[in-house]
Amino acid sequence: MQAASLTRQVNPSEIKSAISNRMDAACFSAWISPLNFNLSDNVLELGAPNQFTADFVSATYMGVLNAVAAEYGLNVRVVVSGCAPATCQTANDNNTQTYSAPAEKSDAGDFDSFIASEENAFVLSACKKMAAGTATFSPLFIYGPAGCGKSLLAAAINSCARGRTVMMSGAMFVSEFARALHDRTIFAFKDYCRNCDTFILDDVQVLSGKRATSEEFLQLIIDLRNAGKNIVLTSNAAPSCLTGFDHRAQSLFASGLVADIVAPTRAVRAKMFARAGLNSKLSDMIAGRVLADGHVISGVVNKIRAYVDIMGETVNETIIERLLADTLKKSKSPIVMVKSMCEKLGVSYDAVCGAGRARGLVLARQMMMLVLKNVTGLSLAEIGGYVGGRDHATVMYGLRMVKKLQSSDLVLSAQINEMINEYK
What we know:
By secondary structure, the protein is an alpha/beta fold. It folds into 4 domains: 2-87, GMP Synthetase, Chain A, domain 3; 133-260, Rossmann fold (3-Layer(aba) Sandwich); 266-323, no CATH class; 334-423, Orthogonal Bundle (Chromosomal Replication Initiator Protein Dnaa, Chain: A). The protein contains 20 helices and 8 strands. A hairpin with a 2-residue loop joins strand 1 (36-40) and strand 2. Helix 11 packs across helix 12. The protein starts with a helix and ends with a helix.
């Protein structure tokens, strides 16, 4: 009797307000506010515009709804029903909503535009299987540092995939979700994202810390996967290393195939410059003196092309040095490298170039030979010239001996590798 009396006194808007106080504002606005609240026989009946909404609200927010309803002596039931006449114009009803996606850029590429190194052969093959519709995994999660080609592969899948594809950046998904909430077209936005054969999100890490957007995105991934659709995600970190996402999100991202992609190697960078029209010598020279970052490489290529177009000149090494002075790592001459290594190894330059045969001096000289061989294109005879005029056979013997020591002496090996990395 008391519960029935309480039900008659309760205003549905009061219950609605109590629910909003216990929820994130964006989640409440997106999912609970559009529902039709009715009270009947100690039951709070929430009318959803479609089955998807009813299922999502029941699975995600039933704990909060039950807790609030219990304070008023009510039970909760979520049903699919029409909207009240007073709220039809603003309710999220798929039958009346429309969503227009923003214009997409037309710079779609294909897989031929991605120059793969041996390290990236696996991720490239996985992307091709996804585009061909023969993949047995979903989602495909691609991660790697900035400028390694993640967006390029995502665009290639978008361009080559069979059926309808939807591709968004993480920033675009956030802004479009917020716009749909503001315009009350959230369910049309949901349908747009789900009505595809392949869904691609570039830079998923942008969703980090955005609770409402992340919840919507995770539900989208679950629905797409359950429907057998292809999903491609890219990120700057592996799922387990993503911050701002809970364990549930991380495990969902990793439930398909996780593939890493490495930055362009020197050989790949040289091919990229060769495609821009540079000869092999210039391509190899620049490739050894730029960062392993596709964005930087793209900027260098654009600068060279702009120079040729504006000035009408063919670039040479002198022009490259001047044009890219702010980008190229400063190269060191072999003589400068030898003198620098003398300081590091604690021997004098005169002693290295002299006829001394002390054990420590010979080892230092042989280490310098190995470093010069790895970081320069010098012949063995030319290398010998920078360490006291040694002949070809002496350099060959020195390299053989120091490599033998390197295989058994980890400290020596680390010291040599450190110098090689410094002078590259």
